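User: Design a sequence. Structure:
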């Protein structure tokens, strides 16, 4: 009877190892050198930005701000999100911004990118924006990362969870690892 049991265990061992390998590989963010595309949804909040007159008229302003929140990736990963940004605003004409974003994961990995954005419209909650970015660097599993980001964002209404309101961004990141 023990011999039958040993044979069953020997047959099950390769299957168990294959399943473990598959699970390990599915948790990895990318194969080296192969492009990876992942969607990311971010909800962020922050203090009101600092705004100053640009000095060339009453409708031109420049500002500086920061936001924090949570990023949820389409493959299930979650990261702490933070960004700093500047903007140039001409009332009734244009709003452009640029900044830097960091997404930090529980395993101490992170990625960092620079972006540019502009307003493309409005809805009942405020401005709608879109932008692009370049992934500059990363650490941990993202060491050596190179890639791009494309995103849209919109204001969210005030809620119990976000009494001052919030911003939602939806991004597509495409990157490679060495």
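Assistant: Done.
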């Amino acid at each position: 009877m023990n011999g039958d049991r040993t044979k069953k265990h020997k047959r099950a061992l390769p299957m168990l190892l294959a399943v473990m390998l598959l699970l390990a590989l599915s948790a990895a963010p990318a194969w080296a050198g192969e492009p990876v595309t992942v969607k990311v949804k971010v909800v962020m909040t922050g203090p009101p930005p600092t705004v100053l007159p640009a000095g060339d008229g009453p409708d031109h302003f420049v500002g500086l701000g920061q936001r924090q929140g949570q990023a949820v990736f389409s493959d299930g990963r979650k990261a702490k999100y933070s960004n700093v940004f500047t903007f140039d605003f001409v009332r009734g004409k244009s709003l452009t911004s640029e900044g830097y974003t960091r997404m930090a994961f529980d395993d101490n990995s992170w990625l960092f990118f620079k972006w540019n954005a502009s307003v493309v419209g409005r809805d009942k909650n405020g401005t709608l924006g879109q932008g692009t970015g370049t992934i500059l660097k990363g650490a941990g599993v993202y060491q050596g990362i190179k890639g791009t980001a494309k995103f849209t964002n919109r204001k969210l209404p005030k809620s119990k969870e976000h009494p001052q309101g919030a911003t939602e961004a939806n991004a597509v990141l495409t990157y490679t690892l060495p």
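The first strand starts at residue 36 and ends at 45. Residues 2-27 form the longest helix (26 residues).
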